[in-house]
Write a structure and sequence with these properties.
heterodimer; A: alpha/beta; 6-stranded mixed sheet; 4-stranded antiparallel sheet; 28% strand; elongated; B: mainly alpha; two-stranded antiparallel sheet; 2 strands; disordered N terminus
């Protein structure tokens, strides 16, 4: 594996709070998803990779070199921050123009690069308007545009889909996939699994400052499919439904309501099969059923309780 | 890779970019307009005296010009300009966190600080020089000072001293802007608290102030104009003055400025300029 980014026992803490704990990973080229709930340490990891933070312990290397204040490395890095940091009264064009100048382009070349980058994110029409008049989605596009200005080899996109409308999201998905196909390394951070799934099949799972897994997204999907779940079934006769489900030994507990039956199961796939059979028999009408805890948080909790050795 | 991406950071180009960028930022700030107005405000004093004071004991144009130049422009406006104009270029980038865009680009931190400092020096020097020039012209109307080589020489010297003040106070402001979260508060305490107090404390405490060296550069010796004494119920305490030659004062302020600019650059390299900590962090 040709590691573009490599960390060894990387830790970062702020006072008593450990943001990143003993992370050792090797990130290859291509698009890599950095997946974890809010506060997991994704942004901290990215900022360490960009040299904005100094590691409290361990080290991080980009192409074998430490990134902090390293101009050679910084010239090949692009960064789209999660938060909105702008000089509000300047236009999108001017904001990008100065960043292009700082990236080493002469005025003429800088203007051309800015025009190209804004065209790529479809912001040409509003590029001379002050940033203060931009919507959340437009600001997001400007941030993405500035990260692409100098054609970086390694790109860090920190929650880039925040605030984007469906069309813009689709465009950004294509852009990221395209960058990956060009041979660039894109670290795409998100707390939404299906967003990451759209752009890559390689993910780093990060939770509470620890890397839980680095691998293919299919494996994560399998874990989600199999981890214990809470299933809510909407029916007029919840007690009868439960009687039919009672043959499923995986069900550990149930709760009744007038219209809902909530079951906790150790094997959701088996329970889904049973529910399907009830629906197909058609004796008791089931209006809907869904998982009440199909989110990353519950998956991570499950992963921690089952896949992380005690003491880590 | 980009067609004109530099291989290594080019100090000159980075400084130039930082300089022009800081100019465009500073010149459109309300704070700049406010400081421009404040800098020409002292002009109304000689105009007011000329129009309304009819007694034979009124102060001459020369006296008013010296007092305004020393006490308003050099002692008051230079530290104010350093704090309010000097901090626009550095502090606004830090406060709005747009500095993270710069710090993730291959721009020399040294060049960035120097470019910002040069832009501040240019703008603040221009404002100060315009203010002193207008005040000088207004004082000429009052008499006892003329537009001749002596008058222009005196005015130029005060402008020069003001610029040295901008250099010293500006360098300290830049360091505070890069090192602390409250540079204006700390700056006000230092420039208007410590600097003023140290000039009355017996002993050599005043050597630890910029004002001491600025006073040494004035056209007339400080000892001829000031009688620094603290009056108390137990009596008055006269401060003994130790003189510094103008040349030494210029060298001292230049060295102090270089040290503080170096510290500002070091803080930019060393500090972690980002606020969004992890959930639960303090």
């Amino acid at each position: 594996m040709d590691a573009q980014i490599e960390t060894k026992e990387l830790s970062k803490w702020f006072g008593e709070v450990v943001a990143l704990n003993n992370v050792s990973v090797q990130i290859p080229s291509g698009v890599v998803g950095l997946l974890g709930p809010n506060g997991a340490g994704k942004s901290t990891f990215i900022k360490l990779a960009l040299g904005l933070y100094r590691p409290s312990r361990g080290e991080i290397r980009i192409l074998g070199k430490k990134p902090r204040n390293n101009f050679q490395i910084l010239s090949i890095l692009g960064y789209c921050p999660e938060m909105d940091h702008f000089v509000e009264e300047v236009s999108g064009f001017e904001f990008l123009y100065w960043l292009a100048r700082y990236s080493g382009y002469h005025p003429k070349a800088a203007k051309k690069r800015v025009g190209d980058a804004l065209e790529r994110v479809h912001m040409v029409e509003r590029m001379y308007d002050p940033i203060s008049t931009y919507s959340k989605g437009m600001r997001q596009r400007i941030k993405v545009a500035q990260s692409l200005l100098h054609d970086p080899q390694i790109l860090f996109l920190d929650e880039p889909m925040n605030g984007l409308d469906p069309t813009a999201r689709e465009e950004l998905f294509h852009l990221v996939i395209g960058l990956g196909n060009e041979g660039k390394t894109v670290v795409f951070s998100s707390h939404v699994l299906h967003e990451v799934e759209r752009v890559t099949d390689t993910v780093i799972l990060i939770y509470n400052g620890r890397v839980l897994a680095l691998g293919k997204i299919r494996e994560i999907r399998d874990l989600i499919q199999n981890h214990p779940r809470t299933i809510v079934i909407e029916t007029m006769e919840p007690k009868k439904v439960y009687q039919l489900l009672s043959s499923d030994s995986n069900i550990t507990s149930v709760n009744f309501d007038t219209q809902f039956l909530t079951v906790h199961t150790l094997d959701p796939l088996q329970t889904f099969k049973c529910i399907n059979e009830i629906i197909l028999e058609g004796k008791i009408p089931i209006f809907s059923f869904h998982c009440a805890d199909e989110d990353l948080q519950s998956v991570f909790q499950y992963l921690i309780s089952t896949h992380i050795p005690r003491g880590l | 890779m980009g067609i004109q991406i530099k291989k290594i950071s080019n100090l000159y180009l980075d400084t130039k970019t930082s300089f022009y960028h800081a100019l465009t930022i500073t010149l459109r700030r309300d704070r700049f307009l406010l400081m421009s107005a404040i800098c020409v405000l002292p002009v109304v004093i000689p105009v007011f005296v000329a129009l309304f004071s009819r007694t034979v004991f009124r102060e001459s144009g020369l006296d008013i010009f010296i007092r305004l130049s020393e006490q308003i422009y050099v002692h008051t406006l230079t530290p104010l300009l350093a704090l309010f104009i000097g901090l626009i270029g550095i502090r606004e980038e830090v406060d709005s966190l747009t500095i993270i865009y710069l710090l993730t680009r291959p721009v020399s931190r040294l060049a960035w600080v120097i470019g910002r400092f040069l832009a501040y020096m240019l703008i603040a020097s221009f404002l100060l020089a315009i203010g002193i020039l207008f005040t000088f012209i207004a004082c000429v109307v009052l008499g006892s000072i003329h537009i001749d080589s002596i008058g222009i020489g005196m005015m130029s010297r005060y402008i020069g001293v003001g610029i040295m003040g901008l250099l010293g106070y500006g360098a300290i402001s830049f360091m505070l802007g890069c090192a602390t979260n409250y540079p204006i508060i700390i700056g006000v305490i230092l420039f208007f608290g410590w600097e003023k107090a140290a000039n009355f404390i017996p002993g050599i405490a005043d050597f630890w102030t910029i004002q001491k060296y600025l006073d040494s550069m004035f056209p007339v010796l400080a000892s001829q104009r000031y009688n620094r004494a603290v009056m108390t119920v137990l009596g008055s305490f006269q401060k003994e003055l130790f003189f510094v030659s103008p040349l030494r004062a210029v060298i001292t302020i230049s060295v102090i400025s270089a040290i503080f600019i170096f510290l500002a650059i070091w803080f930019v390299l060393w500090r972690e300029f980002t606020k969004d900590r992890v959930v639960g962090a303090r």
